[in-house]
Amino acid sequence: MSDERENLTYPLFGQAVRELAQSVANDGFEPDIILSIARGGLFVAGGLGYALDVKNLHVVNVEFYTGVGATLQMPVMLPPVPNVVDLSQKKVLVADDVADTGRTLKLVHDFCAEHVAEVRTAVIYEKPHSQVNCEYVWKRTDQWINFPWSVEPPVVRRHGQVLDA
């Protein structure tokens, strides 16, 4: 990974999501559900939901990155885990902000694959070493990405549900 950074602004994010949605529409894929990978995927899923006129959005919480370039050994789904009955025989579009290693997307994709009619993935950024080749990608990069929602430090630091002053 280079020391240069990809800087995504809120206006550019709006353009990226709109172009990503257009790619999905041009491909003829009509998802029944957009499954967002929290947290960064929440922003992407919301924008895609509006642009593709999909109101059925679900969320899966996955923890993997603990800092810049620092990860857990494996991504972990945090409760509440989506009920596969809600996804059964649906066309699902999994949305996230970035496919970096691809391990988070792979975990969610594999979780869905046996239960849904079809699952595809959409991300703003995909890195060349990702384990998952997403069907819909706005931009490919090998740089670390500064997202507008995570470039500033938190207003407060929290550990679990306990405020860390």
Short description:
Helix content is 27%, strand content 37%. The chain is α/β, with parallel strands linked by helices.
Give an account of the 3D structure:
By secondary structure, the chain is of the alpha/beta class. The chain has 4 helices and 10 strands. The strands form 3 sheets. The protein has a 6-stranded mixed β-sheet. A two-stranded parallel sheet has the order 1-8. Strands 9-10 form a two-stranded antiparallel ribbon. Helix 1 (10-26) crosses helix 2. The longest helix is centred in the N-terminal third of the chain and has 17 residues, at 10-26. It is globular and about 40 Å long.
Order of helices and strands: EHEHEEHEHEEEEE
Query: How many structural domains in the coordinates?
Result: 1
Mean pLDDT: 89
Quickly give the CATH architecture.
3-Layer(aba) Sandwich
Largest sheet: 6 strands, mixed
Oligomer: single chain
Domain Phosphoribosyltransferase: 11-152
InterPro entries: PRTase-like, PRTase_dom
GO molecular function, one term: glycosyltransferase activity
Keywords: Glycosyltransferase, Transferase
Fold blueprint:
Blueprint: E1 5-7, H1 10-26, E2 33-38, H2 40-51, E3 57-67, E4 70-78, H3 84-87, E5 91-99, H4 103-113, E6 118-126, E7 136-140, E8 144-146, E9 157-159, E10 162-164
Helix pairs in contact: 1-2
List keywords for this structure.
single chain; 165 residues; Rossmann fold; 6-stranded mixed sheet; 10 strands; PRTase_dom; glycosyltransferase; glycosyltransferase activity; Phosphoribosyltransferase; PRTase-like
